[in-house]
Amino acid sequence: MPYEPCRYARRWPDLFDQLDDEQKQRVSDALANNRLENWEPGRDDVADLIDRELGRIDTAEYIRRTLSKVTGGEPA
């Protein structure tokens, strides 16, 4: 089944342009799963998730960035 762009891919196509269709689908699925938890990601959240998908950052750095946004600073 071909990839159908999610709302975030339509909103920020430049972020998704660097991904292949399989990567786009994984990122879209992750965003959809988190939306079920009432999380509305911003551009920087999507960019971080894409950086993780592309291997630019590891899981630990992704978690650190996410916690920093949630807590308003560096995690303890």
Write the layout of secondary structure elements.
Blueprint: H1 7-11, H2 13-16, H3 21-35, H4 43-53, H5 59-71
Tally the beta strands. Answer: 0
Helix content: 55-70%
Average of per-residue pLDDT values: 91
**Which class of secondary structure composition applies to the elements?**
mainly alpha
Low-confidence stretches are: none
Largest sheet: none
Task: Give the end-to-end Cα distance, rounded to a whole number of Å.
Answer: 43 Å
Rg over CA atoms: 13 Å
Helix-strand sequence: HHHHH
Count of helical stretches: 5
Strand content: under 5%
User: What does the overall shape look like?
Assistant: globular
Organism: Kribbella speibonae
Domain Antitoxin VbhA: 23-69
Protein name: Antitoxin VbhA domain-containing protein
Pfam families: VbhA
Structure description:
- With 76 residues, the chain is mainly α.
- Helix content is 63%, strand content 0%.
- It is built from 5 helices and no strands.
- α3 crosses α4 and α4 runs antiparallel to α5.
- The longest helix has 15 residues, at 21-35.
- It is globular and about 40 Å long.
- The model has no long low-confidence stretch (mean pLDDT 91).
Briefly say what this structure is.
Helix content is 63%, strand content 0%.
Feature tags:
mainly alpha; 63% helix; globular
